[in-house]
């Protein structure tokens, strides 16, 4: 059975945190979906609130303390990412943005990413497409089509009797699993080929 590494990043501030609860649901749903195609999942969860001071220090010094360095390496080495943020002032949290600001800006190239958010009103659900999706598109990640938003109204029952939130979690996790299953072990470009001059790369394309 293949093993893929999925890193779950939770930007929740409190304990307990609704963002962490949603993150755990998404991670478990992704694991179940991948098991259906005989892929074992190694899940690592990163709580950004535990790294807040390290992130701030990294931003002003350029140096990542050991705990933050380990978290950044886990993200860079992952096969897929699940990112959950609370909604603050109509956008994702500053802590989450700061974490991805100190991450190498090539680390997410072609990486499957599932985005999710929690908030106090369903009106904030647009944050996923207006704020989070553009962030990960800029970082050249492959963002799954279904984003998952959980507000107070989203813990009810859906049309088929399952909780409405569970339906969206399952759908998004299925899309992420599909991306992961279709991703080769060499997710990033071959380093030797990527380092070739543009003229040589163009000549290879024209010669096909």
TrEMBL record:
Keywords: Flavoprotein, FMN, Oxidoreductase. The keyword Flavoprotein applies. Gene3D superfamilies: 3.40.50.360. Residues 5-155 form the NADPH-dependent FMN reductase-like domain. InterPro entries: CE1759_FMN_reduct, Flavoprotein-like_sf, FMN_Rdtase-like_dom, NAD(P)H-dep_FMN_reductase. SUPFAM superfamilies: Flavoproteins. It holds the Pfam family FMN_red. NCBIfam families: LLM_duo_CE1759 (TIGR04037). This is NAD(P)H-dependent oxidoreductase. The lineage of its organism: Bacteria, Bacillati, Actinomycetota, Actinomycetes, Micrococcales.
């Amino acid at each position: 059975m293949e093993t893929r590494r999925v890193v779950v990043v939770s930007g929740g501030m409190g304990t307990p945190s609704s963002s962490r609860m949603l993150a755990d649901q998404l991670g478990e749903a992704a694991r179940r979906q991948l098991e259906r195609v005989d892929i074992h999942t190694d899940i690592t969860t990163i709580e950004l609130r535990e790294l807040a001071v390290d992130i701030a220090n990294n931003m002003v010094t350029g140096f990542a303390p050991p705990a933050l360095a380990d978290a950044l390496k886990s993200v860079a080495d992952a096969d897929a990412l699940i990112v959950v943020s609370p909604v603050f002032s109509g956008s994702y949290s500053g802590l989450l943005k700061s974490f991805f600001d100190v991450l190498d800006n090539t680390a997410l190239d072609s990486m499957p990413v599932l985005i999710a958010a929690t908030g106090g009103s369903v009106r904030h659900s647009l944050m996923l497409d207006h704020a989070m999706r553009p962030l990960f598109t800029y970082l050249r990640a492959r963002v799954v089509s279904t984003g998952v938003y959980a507000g107070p109204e989203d813990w009810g029952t859906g049309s088929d009797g399952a909780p409405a939130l569970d339906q969206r979690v399952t759908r998004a996790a299925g899309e992420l699993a599909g991306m992961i299953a279709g991703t080769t072990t060499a997710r990033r470009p071959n380093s030797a080929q990527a380092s070739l001059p543009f003229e040589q790369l163009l000549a290879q394309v024209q010669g096909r």
